[in-house]
Amino acid sequence: MTETVLEIKNLQVEYHTEHGDVQAVRxxxxxxxxxxxxxxxxxxxxxxSASVKPIMGEKEANQVIKSGEINFTYQTENGQKTVxxxxxxxxxxxxxxxxxxxxxxxxxPMTSLDPTMKIEKQIAEAVKASSPQINxxxxxxxxxxxxxxxxxxxADVVKKQYPHQLSGGMRxxxxxxxxxxxxxxxxxxxxxxxxxxxxxxxKILNLIKDIQKSRKLSVIFITHNLGVVANIATNVNVMYAGxxxxxxxxxxxxxxxxxxxxxxxxxxxxxVNEAVKELPxxxxxxxxxxxxxxxxxxxxxxxxxxxxxxxxxxxxxxxxDHHYAATWLLDKRAPxxxxxxxxxxxxxxxxxxxxxxxx
Amino acid sequence: xxxxxxxxxxxxxxxxxxxxxxxxxxxYGQLIWHRFLRNKGAVVSVVVLVIIxxxxxxxxxxxxxxxxxxxxxxxxxxxxxNGHWFGTxxxxxxxxxxxxxxxxxxxxxxxxxxxxDLVIGTSYGLISGYFGGKIDLFMQRITEILSTIPxxxxxxxxxxVMKPGLxxxxxAMMIVGWINMSRIVRAQVLELKSREYxxxxxxxxxSNFKIIFSQILPNTLxxxxxxxxxxxxxxxxxxxxxAFIGLGVPAPLASLGTMINDGYTxxxxxxxxxxxxxxxxxxxxxxxxIIADGLRDAIEGS
Amino acid sequence: xxxxxxxxxLIAVVTLFLITLIxxxxxxxxxxxxxxxxxxxxxxxxxLYRKYxxxxxxxxxxxxxxxxxxxxxxxxxxxxxxxxxxxxMIFQHFKISLQIGLQATILGSIIGFFMGVLAxxxxxTIWDNLMTGISVLGISLPNFVxxxxxxxxxxxxxxxxxxxxxxxxxxxxxxxxTIALSTFTMASIERYVRNDxxxxxxxxxxxxxxxxxxxxxxxxxxxxIRNTLxxxxxxxxxxxIDLIAGSMVIEKAFAIPGLGTLYISAIQANDxxxxxxxxxxxxxxxxxxxxxxxxxxxxxxxRIRLDEGx
Lengths: 359, 302, 310
Hints:
The complex is a heterotrimer. By secondary structure, chain A is of the alpha/beta class. Chain A is built from 11 helices and 12 strands.
């Protein structure tokens, strides 16, 4: 039986700006089950980060949550408890949820640690927040443990250092150690490898994956790069203009993508084995969300756009019971459209590799 | 709602997928202007400054009274008597006209000094930042040393060698007033220099001079204006400061600083003699500061 | 860090040397000579020139001048306090200036700091607007205007505090000058602290610290205020220098016999030795303050302190 840890229902988030009200998140729904990694993928500005900020109770002055529920289920001493994170008080979020049940790994490791505070203190602070009774000796032990958990060898040297003395990869490991310090059940990773070089990216991804497995964590993984997701996610939600346009298991999205936007994202993932002359990108820019969107927000950039795409918003068409996509191409009446051939070839290759791995 | 015409499920005619941005697009200048207009304090300050400037430059011409000629039999009149709106001082001179004339002196000092500052500061910063390397290093050392010499030392020494008055104040500001400006411009240039459009202009073989004026200068304008606006109250302040310690413009010329200095000792008996120059000085200083703040916020986009 | 201190020291020395050179040139360029007493004959003046080494080659004169300056021998006063050594005069007057200057710095920094914290924490509320309003006023109003206003209120209307300095009541009569002198420092610190705190509260590391679930109070104290306290040091030096300039005005407004008053009367009386002596003293003071503050900042901020490994 799968246990749902987080369920987001019809979340709508708006930002008031000087150009008008930006509808950053336009009604999204998804679930995160225990031990699963759910990826949110899309270009920057598609509402990925805006959709997770409310989970952490991060409230910006110009941000308004128009509607929705964020139901979070966690274990307390008195058994299981489910709360709507949008309903409980900020104080409760601060004292019960943040750092203890839900923790976060941020985008830029170069700036996400306090520049004037020693590493050990920054970790200790997080440990103390979740277990205030801890004594000094235990605290020290716990800090060292945490530094070692994230794969840092010389923990007792590192703990005495300041962030600027560490490399980007090391800093991100420390950020992960801080996230783990309260033994959370849900980890939100917001572009955790952006800004790191490729070899370090892979190491950090593996670290997150290992930790997720060994601790049976649930993870929400935000990225603009579908390629990063393949090895780590169980489920993938592709977001465009504040909406989820395709959702499915990782196999669904990688081997049987249906939305033209997902095709575009997949095409733009660099393939290390293939000598590509030019990496295809999705033409155009994301729409202006201060204006009401008519039809499919992606239509103006869509090579396969139908007339109806400019008139009516496509519903989520079911591909199978865990794979849905919001594109009129899946309607019975729509002309048959083949996946771009380059992508098709790639998928065939990936499938073979996956089979080979499975043996 | 949707009329299900038969062509709904045909491919749309605009698959020429192009950059599509339906939003209202503002130019950078318009954006700053819009933000600035939303700042009520700043807009009010602009109005106040315009009014004060008009008074300063028009009143001495249209008033029946002279700002400098004494009328001993008309001395120490309270505001409102005999057509003297702000009263008269101890030599019988109309305070309103004197305040207007003093304001115009203060404003002129500020503007002349700042114009010089703008030219020196901007070109220094542009040259230092754009050419970089040894030129930059050398020029930076000079500003580093100059900036450790405090303004008042330079001013007092100048006043000592030259005579108290407008020229020594303006000269002093020419010596050190531009350092802040040059630093800001330099920092901006260093940042802009690495941007693509400047790099491409360089590879296209455009001359340094042309790149500076067509590519770099327009982009640093926002910062320059803000710094400029903030330097004006500094200049007025310096003039008033010198006047107050007795090194201001020589009599019978009046600046706001000298009037405050003259009225100070009689503030208990004739408070209006010091009140009006103080009011004008405070309004000018406040307005320039609020406008500069508003501009900075508009440029930084907070 | 060593390199950093060395660099700052070197700049300080070069600057002081340059200032001395300027002062020397100025003394040479001054209208008249120090001995232009009409009663003296040419022979007497020439004898005096010889006595003070003023007839030697120019480089030797400068060398002598430099030596005198460094050893604190600025000569004697000609007009203000005839024949009193300038050094003695400077220290007599500086004591009062120092007292009021320090009081104003401490008062202005502390109040300005708390105002800034309040404005930043309550950003966008009436508190923020109030604090920002006060600080704009404080920056805009020259401190002699502030001096005038507060002495009219507290000294003439309410008659609770003396409006002029009295040597018999050195502290009570320094209250109004201290307040008048501190307004600019207070307003500047308020602005700096508010802006710095808001920048920090917008930073990634604030978000991370917040995500730990620590108490709001702890978050503000440990991550925002602590970092602001470190960087506020950088504005302290220029503010103290502004404050010394301001002290000339305040001393005049409250009739305080401080160094500023002495400086002004020396300038007005063309007492060159006193003017040049005080100028040199101020220069040393300014450069010293900047040097100390810069090094202090380097010691406190780990990003600079630990930078020598590279």
